[in-house]
Amino acid sequence: MTLLVWALLPLTPGDPAERTIRGRGNLEPEPAQVAALRQELGLDRPLPEQYAVWLSKLVRGQLGISYRSKQPVERELASRVAATLLLAAGGVVVAVAIALPLALLAARHQDRWPDQAARMFALVGTSLPSFWIGLLLLDLFAVRLRWTSALAKPDLAHLPLPAFVLGLGLASVLTRILRAGLVGELGRRYALVMRARGAGQWHVLVRHALPNASLPGINVLALGIGGLLGGAAAVETVFTWPGMGLYIVDAIGARDLPVVQGFAVISAGIFILCNLGADLLAMTVDPRLRQQAQR
Amino acid sequence: MRAPAAGGAVLTVRDLHVTYAGGVQALRGIDLQVAPGETLAVVGESGCGKSTLATAVLRLLPASAAVRGSVDLAGIDVYACPPGAAKRIRGQIAGLVVQDPMSAFNPVMRVGEHVVEARRLHSRQAAGQALWDWTVGLLRELRIPEPERRARQYPHEWSGGMLQRAAIAAASVNRPRLLLADEPTASLDASLAVDVVLGLRERLHTQARGADEAPAAMLLITHQLGLAAQVADRLAVMYAGRVVEVGAAAAVIGRPRHPYTRALVAAMPRPGAGLPEPLEGELPPLTPAPPGCAFSARCRLAQAACAAGPPPPLVDGVACPVVTGAAA
Amino acid sequence: MAVSESAIEATAGTAPAAAPAAALAAPGARRFRTLRRLLAHRSGVLGLAGLLLVAFVALVGPHLTPYDPTEVNILEKLQPPSAAHPLGTDYLGRDLLSRTVDGAHRSLGTAVAVVGAVLAVSIVFGCLAGFAGGAVDATIMRVVDVKLGLPGLVLSLALVGTLGPSLGTLILALTIAQAPWYIRLIRTMVLRERERPYVLVARVHGAPPVAVVWRHVIPAVAGQLAVLATLDLGSVVLAVAGLSFLGLGVQPPAAEWGAMLNDGRITFALHPLLMVVPGACIFFTVLCANLCGDALRDVLDPTWQRGREGRR
């Protein structure tokens, strides 16, 4: 399955004629130069051959040569991937840090104001455009309060604001899923039995309901990281965070196809790793999944 | 610490009414007493309010349910005491065993850990090797094979009968004065059912080691009259949220007086008693409950007066004026 | 065209279509009850009203705007709100109110187009996979699985990057990114529906597959699809605005909320309205769509209804 995703990826974007025309339009108008460049980049060869070359390079960890900088794509992207991963990790931390207490409070005080507040947060959080709230917060903190600089460096000191903006949407989704899961678990018979043994509501909620309710949460988190990789483009643009997203937007503007392809491959790779990680995490929580895997 | 109960009873339920948010009147004036060491079986069809009784005794009904009347557990008024005290009652004075053991365990926690946790909720004993060994010993007492290995397994790796024994261990780990067993055998094979309930009783008797301590009492809630007949000292028959007959188990089954009890006994398969007669009709709706005797719609002895006025009270252990001769 | 309207048409319109099949009479009645219950759902009605408002503005507004939304008037750039320009003007002297109203048309229209295209594509491929089976099914599902292996937004970015930014590409990219989920879902529903007795009867009687799909399968799945589409409308509006904000969707000088936001950010410190207004419009539209979707889900799926089972 993993191999299939990777192998079919370069086939996904458009047809070859379109690519070449677009490439010519943005590079050099001189036909001779174009031909030379096409030869240099291997664009004159038939598509299957191009694909085979691209794929064989991919296996060796090479993603091709950028049209613009003439540098290997993997080298161009390497430092930016790290910045994006830092941002995405920050987003995940923010999402969990918000969603976990909010969902627990909502489930503990079901149908009362903490629950309504969590519901409201989830609704607003999924409806806010991240780039808009990002710009507003940036203006507030960088321009009006001067707490941080508008030009972010990819380090921990500059992380909180973009990470918050990126993680907000995921926090909303996670809150909703966790809350629903917790309420569902509290309705199960074992929750009543635990209470009958003298356990308090918080004890049942945290010790028993949470591990069970976290299983769908883990899946949402893994899917959400995929969303963060795409959403990072807007947030990185707002905060000029020098990550993959900012770079890819530039590359799209310049029709730098190898970079776009590289971005998709790397994102798919990260996404697959995240899902693998989620599966492993779910297995450590649920013994039934562990045994399924052993069989 | 354990004050002697008022009148010596472990559990006293007085005029208990429970109405759920949807308007269902699950309990409509229950009076019950359980003496120390006694096993009282509460029998009735499903939907008669038996399970509500078990959760109501522990003050674990949904917050939206309206409760009237009183429950006294070993001298503590369950609904008048502060929530912290109610929490201490659960597991320490009264334990609960429910039906379908598979759903009564947290699926991602080891079986042994459930027992350890039940113990630690009421004692300062540190979780460690000593407590674990003690848990394994307890499981061995309950005839769980290979308890060392089994205790480390997860609920789904256990069979239903074994798991119910572990549930009994967890419920009685703090030596409660009363065990509430809500259909403990409903999801088990018939052969296992008696085994489990006998194990339950045995457990209640062996745990009372001191001479000054009476064996624990049991409130066995079941729809299986046959099972109740085998293990109970006394029997209470419930219909539509009320107790219609109560008395010594042998007497109630041997000489049933209330028409409903008679029908139940007739529906019970017994050797040498011919074919059981199935009970006809259905439980009345409880939103709101009908006036008069709730059973009158299905009753063969019903008279015109039965379906009017307040429901008949228990007189001499039977709530039927027709049978006791108070009417007519 | 507001999707909220089409959602209701879809739910209500299925009843007459379902009439020939006796078995569907009951579901038809249930859908009318659904509509009634939706109208009793307070936040759902709020969301529906908000969406209808945006839809109304999007449909009628562009004919009423006082200025051409793309008309440059450099002499009147960055005007504060005034009688002539109720919300002021942007850095090219274009009237903000006119652009916002015109943007509603484009933002919501694009999102509705995407949702519509997703539904059309996925109904065709979902039914094809579900009905044809065999190699066709296997091929379609394999492509779907591969697409699902990539996060939707990443896929959209890659597609826009390859085909070049334009409104058409945007719609295409978002459609391709969204459709796999729907195709898989519809295929599952078709597989379930095709075994229903009345569908079997129709097939035994020799009805062509297309007719069977049209008469029986689509009415049966329309309600669920309407809920999903409404739930997704919000995120699609967000995606359209987001990609346009990045300069990868609607191209200047056309007015679109995301693109306007991007224009406004340069002058934000001095002229906050230029950014606040389009952003608030996006937020409001998405909020209403989400309210509507939540309400529909509450109404249609009893397991999602919040029970009053809290324990004391």
Written account of the structure:
Chain A is mostly helical and 295 residues long. Chain A is built from 13 helices and no strands. With 328 residues, chain B is α/β, with parallel strands linked by helices. Helix content of chain B is 31%, strand content 19%. Chain B has eleven helices and ten strands. In chain B, helix 3 runs parallel beside helix 6 and helix 6 runs parallel beside helix 7. The radius of gyration of chain B is 20 Å and the shape is globular. In chain C, helix 3 crosses helix 11 and helix 5 crosses helix 7. The longest helix of chain C has 37 residues. The N and C termini of chain C lie far apart (49 Å). The N terminus and C terminus of chain C are likely disordered.
Report the top-level CATH class of chain C: Mainly Alpha
- The total count of strands of chain C amounts to 0
Low-confidence stretches of chain B: 1-6
Total beta-strand segments of chain B: 10
What is the domain tally of chain C?
Answer: 1
Largest interface: A-C, 61 and 54 residues
**Could you tell me the strand content of chain C as a percent range?**
under 5%
> Could you give the order of strands across the largest sheet of chain B?
6-7-8-3-9-10
Helix content of chain C: over 70%
Number of helices of chain B: 11
Mean pLDDT of chain B: 81
Reported for the largest beta sheet of chain C, the result is:
none
Share of residues in helices of chain B:
25-40%
Report the order of strands and helices of chain C: HHHHHHHHHHH
CATH topology category name of the domain at 38-59 and 82-279 in chain B: Rossmann fold
Pairing-aware structural class of the strands and helices of chain C?
mainly alpha
Secondary structure layout plus pairing:
The complex is a heterotrimer of chains A (295), B (328) and C (312).
Chain A lengths: L1 H7 L7 H11 L4 H11 L5 H13 L13 H36 L4 H15 L2 H15 L15 H27 L2 H8 L4 H39 L4 H10 L3 H29 L1 H8 L1
Chain B lengths: L10 E9 L5 E10 L4 E5 L6 H8 L8 E8 L2 E2 L5 H10 L1 E4 L13 H10 L8 H13 L5 H5 L8 H12 L6 E5 L7 H18 L9 E6 L2 H7 L2 E6 L2 E7 H6 L4 H9 L53 H4 L4
Parallel strand pairs in B: 3-8, 3-9, 6-7, 7-8
Antiparallel strand pairs in B: 1-2, 1-4, 4-5, 9-10
Helix pairs in contact in B: 3-4, 3-6, 6-7
Chain C lengths: L2 H16 L6 H16 L1 H23 L31 H37 L1 H15 L3 H12 L3 H27 L3 H8 L4 H37 L11 H9 L7 H28 L12
